[in-house]
Structures are given as C-alpha cells and as structure tokens.
Design goal:
Belongs to the IspD/TarI cytidylyltransferase family. IspD subfamily. It comes from Streptomyces thermospinosisporus. By secondary structure, the protein is of the alpha/beta class. It has one domain: Spore Coat Polysaccharide Biosynthesis Protein SpsA, Chain A. The protein is 29% helix and 20% strand. The chain has seven helices and twelve strands. Strands 1, 4, 5, 6, 7, 10, 11 and 12 form an eight-stranded mixed β-sheet that branches. A two-stranded antiparallel ribbon has the order 2-3. Strand 2 and strand 3 form a beta hairpin. It binds cytidine-5'-triphosphate and the ligand C[C@](O)(CO)[C@H](O)COP(=O)(O)O. The site of cytidine-5'-triphosphate has 22 residues, from helix 3.
Length: 258
C-alpha cells in the first residue's frame, strides 16, 4: 500500500452530478396525405435514403441523445427495424421501434409508454423534419437541462397572418376577423424538449385535438419557452417541400465534399 497521503479535499467541492439522460421519440406513423400518393411519408426517399433515416441521424448526431424511439407506421414496424439495422447509428445510441396510432398524439403517447426508466429529458421530433441541424437539437436539450419544463424551437413569421371565419365549403371567400400582431407570433418546429414527468402528465391529462406536444404542457398551466429555430428544420408536408429538402441536402453534400 502506498504511504502517500490522500490529496486534501478541495474546499467546498461537490461531486459532479451526471447530466440527465436524454431520449428522442420520433413520431413517424403518418401517411403523408398532403405529400400525395405513395409510401408512408417517413419512408419516402430524400437524397436516396428514407426521410426517417435522416431524422434519426439528426437526433443521434447530438452527443446528449442516447436512445431513439421510432414510432413506426402500424404495419411498418418490421420494415423500420430492418432499415435501422442497415443504417448504423453511432454506438452510443440505442434504438427501439414501436407501432404508432391513428393520430400524432396517439403515436407520441405510444413512444412515451415504451420509454425505459432512466431518461429524464425527452425530445419529440417529427420524422417529417429530416434536416434539423444538431445545434438546434442541442439548444433545446440545454434549455431543458437549465430548468425549463418544455422548450420549442421557434422562428418569426415572414407572412402577415389573418384570423378568418372558415368557409362553409372549400373555395368560398372567408371573411377576415382580425390581423394578429405579427411581432408576437412564432412558427414552432421540432424537436420539442421536455422534462419527462411533465410530458407524461400532459399526455395523461389533456384530451382533445392538439397539433403539438408543447401546447399540451401549456394546457397544464406551465410555461413553455422558445429557443431559436432554424430554417432548415422545416416540415416536409407538401410536394414543394420535398424539392426544397433535396436542394438543401445537395448543398450540404457539396459543402461537405461528397
Ligand atoms: N398518426 C400519426 C400521424 C402523424 N404522425 C407523425 O407526426 C409527424 C408530423 O405529422 P405530419 O407532418 O402532419 O405527417 P402526416 O400525418 O403523415 O401528414 P398528412 O397530414 O399530410 O397525412 C410526422 O412525422 C408523422 O409521421 C404519426 O406518428 N402518427
Ligand atoms: C409539431 C409540429 O411540427 C410543430 O410545428 C406541427 O404542429 C405538426 O403538425 P402536423 O399537421 O401534424 O404536421
């Protein structure tokens, strides 16, 4: 045994607490009706690879994300597992595949139910946003680590927005009711980041149609905060979005030299 004395403890030193572990849930079970006929949207090709593979890599690129839960089209779970085996993720990232539901909310809930213990931060990220940069993902995680219970990436709007009385039948003129102050409006993206317990409570408590997870946390009366979004985190919804996504990817590949 060494006779060397143990080093004196640093005054007031506190052992560093490990960072809370982060999992990403990727709802990918939608049909993609607005994109037009074809395979489920998440499995459509972008730059020669299924859109879902890009979305999974976008999450796994963050060193903070150690588990990705993919919520697959109900009849496509086996195909998605095969895809993930074929397109290796970084070794530090585990993945699970579960079947999705009828709505985005149901699909996210299925992903949350499959989450093992030990992940205190959860990202929810649309498979339909395949090109979100890793800096945006990390900014969301950082804001949750800093204490926010719910975080959304957000961008200012380019268009003026009108509130209307929706037409009784498609194509009829719609009376404008109001013009909200654009400087107070934001378009929000994913990944949205959450304290896990808060997101689970929101999904257990809030009923009715919602279009994102953060609005469920708002309905609990809790504060949701924004971080800067990114224009390349746009959602592939209509055919023109796919053209833009191909162009963004081609530019990235050119810049990366392959
Ligand atoms: N039952 C559903 C519906 C949607 N989503 C997912 O939620 C994300 C955002 O939905 P959206 O872009 O609206 O996709 P779709 O529902 O596929 O599109 P559409 O409304 O045009 O059919 C997508 O990654 C989609 O796969 C899901 O997991 N389960
Ligand atoms: C969650 C979302 O991407 C935030 O902008 C969006 O609300 C999803 O909407 P969709 O109609 O299900 O595509």
């Amino acid at each position: 045994m060494s006779d060397d004395p143990l080093p004196a403890p640093e005054p007031n030193s506190v052992p560093a607490r490990p960072a809370p572990r982060t999992a990403a849930v990727i709802p990918a079970a939608g049909r993609g009706v607005r994109l037009g006929p074809g395979a489920p949207k998440a499995l459509r090709a972008l730059g020669g690879l299924p859109m879902l593979v890009h979305a999974i890599r976008a999450m796994a690129d963050s060193r903070a994300v150690s588990l990705v839960v993919v919520v697959a089209p109900p009849d496509g779970a086996a195909e998605v597992k095969t895809l993930l085996d074929a397109h290796a993720l970084p070794e530090r990232t585990d993945f699970l595949v579960v079947p999705g539901g009828e709505t985005r909310q149901e699909s996210v809930r299925a992903g949350l139910e499959a989450l093992p213990e030990g992940y205190d931060i959860v990202l929810v990220h649309d498979a339909a946003r395949p090109l979100v940069p890793v800096d945006t993902v990390d900014a969301v995680i950082e804001a949750v680590r800093d204490g926010a219970v719910a975080v959304v990436p957000a961008l200012p709007l380019a268009d003026t927005v009108k509130e209307v009385e929706p037409a009784a039948s498609p194509g009829e003129p719609e009376p404008v009711l109001a013009t909200p102050d654009r400087s107070r409006l934001r378009a929000v993206q994913t990944p949205q980041g959450f304290d896990r317990a808060t997101l689970v409570r929101a999904h257990e408590t809030v009923t009715g149609d919602v279009t994102d997870d953060a609005s469920m946390v708002e309905q609990l009366g809790l504060t949701v905060v924004t971080v800067p979004g990114h224009e390349e985190a746009f959602k592939v919804t209509r055919p023109l979005d796919l053209v833009l996504a191909e162009a963004v990817l081609a530019r990235r590949r050119l810049n990366d030299g392959f």
